[in-house]
Write a structure and sequence with these properties.
12 helices, alpha/beta, 9 strands
């Protein structure tokens, strides 16, 4: 698809978008993202709010189903410092990283202020219960319509969908690993749920206190990924070190292609 700037021709806006390694990304900062998300909530328009990092972009280029799901999302943020750096290197600069857990907390705060409701889906039962407790303590007026752990079979997706329809939340935060998370959200949307779905990965573990988040200095230096690897080296080493190498090589290759096209 190249690195051309494209426009999102939708009723909810014509925000500028770019393409990096076959992955569409919205040129939005955090404030602009929140404002656009709220338009979906107010109009009861279903939304899959997507965040992409190097690992997700690698998956897009290896998995056609994932590519289709990601690229048709209403909002696609750069949730990775490497993606923002790649955009600068490829001369299509994104404004900033929109970190998933921070965006989730901003949307929870918005929900408390505007009386929107949320639903928590994912993680172990004790973790999602603790997440609910922490959020209620931090945001006393927050409306939590329901919670459900992330340990269920595909045969139970229909029941999950029915529960969400019955409770009618404005936001559903999904703390399940990829690619099942994306497949599940796709199913729930296709089944007629008109809320905002946001995949939040391991955010419930962090919010509940089960896993610590990187200190502020590491976040500011874009080293949060390194902190995560230090916490779970066996699970995350391949994703970050090998995955980032694959991503960097692909970006360099794309840059060379750009130069040839511009000669």
């Amino acid at each position: 698809m190249g690195q051309e700037i494209i426009k999102q021709e939708e009723i909810l806006g014509k925000n500028k978008r770019i393409v990096i390694l076959n992955t569409i990304i919205d040129v939005l900062n955090v404030k602009e993202t929140i404002e656009l998300v709220e338009k979906y909530v107010k109009t009861k328009t279903p939304l899959h709010l997507m965040g992409v990092n190097a690992d997700k972009i690698n998956e897009v280029n290896q998995n056609e189903k994932m590519k289709e799901i990601v690229n048709k999302c209403g909002i696609i943020n750069a949730d990775g410092a490497s993606v923002v750096l790649a955009s600068k290197y490829l001369k299509n600069t994104l404004p900033e990283r929109v970190a998933g857990i921070d965006l989730m907390m901003d949307l929870v705060k918005l929900s408390e202020n505007k009386k929107y409701s949320i639903y928590l889906l994912g993680a172990k039962q004790e973790i999602v219960e603790k997440t609910e407790s922490v959020l209620k303590e931090k945001f006393p007026n927050l409306i939590i319509k329901g919670i459900h752990n992330g340990y269920f079979k595909k045969e139970e997706w229909k029941d999950i969908s029915k529960d969400i329809k019955d409770r009618e939340p404005d936001f559903v935060f999904v703390g399940i690993t990829s690619p099942i998370k994306e497949y599940l959200i796709e199913y729930l949307q296709n089944d007629g749920n008109d809320c905002v779905f946001m995949g939040v990965g391991g955010s419930f573990d962090v919010i509940s206190g089960n896993i610590p988040r990187a200190p502020q200095w590491m976040q500011k230096m874009n080293l949060e990924w390194l902190f995560r690897v230090m916490q779970e080296p066996k699970r995350l080493f391949k994703r970050y070190f090998i995955g980032n190498t694959v991503f960097i090589r692909a970006v360099i290759k794309e840059k060379r292609k750009q130069k040839k096209e511009n000669r």
